Every structure is written in C-alpha cells, then in structure tokens.
Amino acid sequence: MKFQKRHFVISRLALILLAGMMSQTIYAKWDEERDMTANGKEELVYYYKTNEQGQKLVLDKYVKRLIFIRPDRLYKRSIKQMKIDGAVIDVTSDPFSHYPEQTAIIFENKDEVLKKLFLAKKVEFNVLYGREEAVSVFQIK
C-alpha cells in the first residue's frame, strides 16, 4: 500500500515538473525583454518578436494587448484584423500619442486570444495607412 501511494506521489511530481518545463518552452518561442517599473520596485517581463522588415510585435500580458511597432514616417495607421495561424480575429487599434511609431492592438476575449498568441506559429496583420494596405507577418518559432 505504501509503495502504491509513494509511486502515485512521484508520478504526480513528475507530471507537474513536465508541465512546468513545457510551459517554459511555450514562452521560449517569444523573445524576452525585461523592464523595471517607474518606482524601480518591480520587474516586468514582455515578450516580443521582430520580423524581417524591422517591425516589432510586443505581447503585453499585463494590459492584455499587443503593441505593433513600426518606425516609419506614416504614423497614422489602423489595424482592424489579425490572423493567428490563419484564424481571423477582429481587433481595434489605438495609436500612442507620445510614441507615434507604436500602435496598441486590442481584442475581445483577451485571455483566449493571449493563449492563442503564446501558442502561435504565425501572426499576420493588415495595416491600413489611409487607403493603402500593407501586410505584416511575424513568424514565431
């Protein structure tokens, strides 16, 4: 009886360790950036990817949004839709007034979309500059 109980406890511990290691590999797909809060008391971790065009996609898990960064002269941009591994998700975008190269991307069902983003292999955006449209693609490996 003791052997079975001990075996059960050991197998549960192994399962917990395996799950912890797998969650680390999920986060490893995104690059990490660390920042301190304004008061210097707390360290924040942000996950990001950069594509070949030099655009950056930051996963802000604290506010539950994405931040699209594209250093260019066309600051007036809007993003209404994104694709996560081909699945279309409607979004809204909001440019930062103090950082015009940054655009916040907000979506409904925040927890569900964040989970999909952490597991994603490819994220695409249709970015509108007035009437012109550009596609931004981020490969996450």
Summarize the main sheet.
9 strands, antiparallel
Q: Which ranges are low-confidence, i.e. pLDDT below 50, for 5 or more consecutive residues?
A: 13-27
In percent, how helical is the residue content?
25-40%
Straight-line distance between termini: 46 Å
Mean of residue pLDDT values: 80
Report the order of strands and helices.
HEEEEEEEHEE
Structure classification: alpha+beta
Number of helices: 2
Proportion of β residues?
35-45%
Secondary structure tally: strands: 9
Features:
single chain; 141 residues; alpha+beta; 9-stranded antiparallel sheet; 9 strands; globular
Account of the protein in words:
By secondary structure, this protein is an alpha+beta fold. The chain has 2 helices and 9 strands. A 9-stranded antiparallel beta sheet has the order 1-2-3-4-7-6-5-8-9, with helices on one face. Strand 1 and strand 2 form a beta hairpin.
Task: Kindly summarize this structure in a few lines.
The protein is α+β, with helices and mostly antiparallel strands and 141 residues long.
SSE layout and pairing:
Blueprint: H1 2-28, E1 31-36, E2 43-50, E3 56-60, E4 65-69, E5 78-84, E6 87-95, E7 102-107, H2 110-119, E8 122-129, E9 132-139
